[in-house]
Amino acid sequence: MRHLRILSMLLSVMLLSMHMTGCVALVAGGAAGAGVVYIKGQLNENINEPVPRVYDASISALKELGLPLIDYDHDTVSAKIKSKFADGDDIWIEIEAVTAESSKITVRVGVMGDENKSRKILDVIHKHLSESEGGGKAY
């Protein structure tokens, strides 16, 4: 009986340490990503640019990548864009105003998410933001 209690305690300590290690890795990964967070198949970032500028950069990025514009809609506080890769993976880009001069952008590729493709799209969006006035720096 005593061995069972010790084994139970060791198992609890191991599980707790694995859980806490995962949290540390998540925090460290988020800090290393300069504000870009990939979670549950979505790449999210807050950008110091208003929605219309992020929307224009997103449209330009998709055109540069040779990706079709399937559906798109925007106003001064939000925007949604849908596209598709040649392999059939759908692309969703959502932009929401955080303030009048900053936005949150969410990029998702495919039903389960594809981090590499999402990051490629976001990188090209940043390229177009930096080419325009303002720089598009993340915060």
What this model shows, in words?
By secondary structure, the protein is α+β, with helices and mostly antiparallel strands. The chain has helices at residues 2-32, 51-64, 115-131, and strands at residues 37-39, 42-47, 71-74, 78-84, 90-99, 102-109. The protein has 2 domains: 1-32; 35-131, 2-Layer Sandwich (TATA-Binding Protein). Helices cover 45% and strands 27% of the residues. It has a 6-stranded antiparallel sheet with strand order 1-2-6-5-4-3.
Structural descriptors:
disordered C terminus, 6 strands, alpha+beta, 139 residues, six-stranded antiparallel β-sheet, 45% helix, 27% strand, elongated, 2 domains, TATA-Binding Protein
**Terminus-to-terminus distance:** 55 Å
- Rg from Cα: 20 Å
Instruction: Specify the CATH class of the largest domain.
Output: Alpha Beta
The dominant shape is elongated
- Helix percentage: 40-55%
**CATH fold topology of the largest domain:** TATA-Binding Protein
User: Uncertain runs with pLDDT below 50, 5 residues or more?
Assistant: 23-33, 135-139
Task: Set down the secondary structure blueprint.
Layout: H1 2-32, E1 37-39, E2 42-47, H2 51-64, E3 71-74, E4 78-84, E5 90-99, E6 102-109, H3 115-131
Antiparallel strand pairs: 1-2, 2-6, 3-4, 4-5, 5-6
In brief:
This protein is α+β, with helices and mostly antiparallel strands and 139 residues long.
